Amino acid sequence: MHKNKKKYKINWKFSQKGNLWKIIFAGNEIICGETRNTVKKESYFFSVDVKTGKSLLKNYVPEKDNFWITLEDASSKYFFLSRFEQPGMPNHSSIIAVDLKSGNKIWENTELEFFYNTEDMVIAYKQNFESAEIYELNAVTGEVIKKHTENMYGHFYKLREKIISEKYNEINDYPVSFSNNSSNSVKDVLNIEIKNTSASNPEFIERDDKVIFNYYRDKSHDLNNINKKNFSNIICIYDKSGLILYKDILNESTSYKVPDNFFTKDEYLYYIKEKNELINIKL
Questions:
Q1: Where do the domains of the chain lie, and which CATH numbers do they carry?
Q2: Residue 76 to residue 62: CA distance in whole angstroms
Q3: Which is higher by pLDDT, 246 or 67?
Q4: How confident is the model at residue 222 (pLDDT cuts 50, 70, 90)?
Q5: How many Cβ atoms sit within 10 Å of the Cβ of residue 4?
Q6: CB neighbours of 1 closer than 8 A, spacing ≥ 6?
Q7: Please, which residues bridge with residue 48 across strands?
Q8: SS3 string of the chain?
Q9: Are strands 92-99 and 12-15 parallel, antiparallel or unpaired?
Q10: CA atoms within 13 A on the CB side of 169
C-alpha cells in the first residue's frame, strides 16, 4: 500500500523582488500579493493564476514612491490599494482599484478609506472630527451608490466578518499549535518525524488522511557561538499511517519561531520559503 501512495511535488513556485508581505485570494482563480524591500523602501505587487502559477502581474509598480502604498483586498477582477496618509505613519487614505491582469488603474477615490469589499461593492468610510460616514461604492466604477450614518457601522462590521470567514477558513485551512489535546493520529505522525531531535513549536493542519505540519530544529549547537539562537524551519506532509509524502525547508536559518508559515485553500497547500518564495502543492 505504501509503495502506491502518492508522493507530493511542487506544482508551481513564484517569487519577485523583495520579501513576501501580504497574500490575498482574488476570487477562486487568482492569488495576488505584495512584496517589500524595507531597506530600499520599495514595494511591488503581483497576481498569479492559482492552478498554473502563471504570472499575470509581476514586479508591478503602480506609481512612483510606491512604498507608501499597500494592498487592502481583492475581487476576482481588481485588487484595491490604499495610500499611507504620511510616510512612516500607519493611517491609510484613498482607494485605488487596479485591474488584476493588465495593471491598469481603473479608478481612485481620494476622499474615503477602504473598509472591505464584496465582488460588486467596496465599503468605505470617512472619519470626520466627531463621527464617521459609511459608503457603498460600485467596485467597477468607484461611483458612490449609497451613504450611511455612523450608527450603521455595526451592521457593516458584521458583514465584513462574515465575508472574511467565508473567504478564509481559519478553523480548517490554517495551522494550530500542537497540544496534548491533539488527536492520536497527529501525535503519532509528529513523533515519527521529530523523535529524538531538538524540535519545537510544531503547528499542524489535519486534512482527510494527511497531517501537514512544520517544526523548528535548534541549530545553535552547530554554531561556534552557542549563545546565538539559530533555528531551521521544516515542513512535512505525512499520511496518518506514518508514511512521509513531502518534506522541505521553510527557512534554513532564522532567529525567531514565527507561526503561520503555511496554509491550505481548496485543493492546494501554500507555504512561504525563505520569506520570498510562494510554493503551491496540489494535494
A1: 2-167 (2.40.128.630), 175-282 (no CATH)
A2: 19
A3: 246
A4: low
A5: 5
A6: 241
A7: 31, 55
A8: CHHHCCCCCCCEEEECCCEEEEEEEECCCEEEEEEEECCCCEEEEEEEECCCCCEEEEEECCCCCHHHEEEEEECCCEEEEEEECCCCCCCEEEEEEEECCCCCEEEEECCCEEEEECCCEEEEEEECCCCEEEEEEECCCCCEEEEECHHHHHHHHHHHHHHHHHHCCHHHHCCEECCCCCCHHHHHHHHHHHCCCCEEEEEEEEECCEEEEEEEEECHHHCCCCCCCCEEEEEEEEECCCCEEEEEEEEEEECCCCCCCEEEECCEEEEEECCCEEEEEEC
A9: unpaired
A10: 7
Q: Within 13 Å of residue 272, how many CA atoms lie on the same side as its CB? A: 17
Torsion of CA 184, 187, 190, 192, to 10 degrees: -70
- 1 pLDDT above the threshold of 70: no
CA gap 5, 224 in Å, rounded: 42
Grid cell of 273 as nine digits: 520559503
The x, y and z cell numbers of residue 121, run together, are: 461593492
Contacts of 235 (CB under 8 A, 6+ apart): 212, 213, 214, 246, 247, 248, 249, 250, 261, 262, 271
Could you report the per-residue pLDDT of 140-179, keeping only the tens digit for each? 999 999 998 777 888 898 999 999 888 888 778 999 998 8
Q: Which of 5-19, 133-147, 189-203, 239-253 has the lowest mean pLDDT?
A: 189-203
CA distance 242 to 249: 20
Is the Cβ–Cβ distance between 233 and 274 less than 8 Å? no
Q: 234, 238, 231: which is closest to 273 by C-alpha?
A: 234
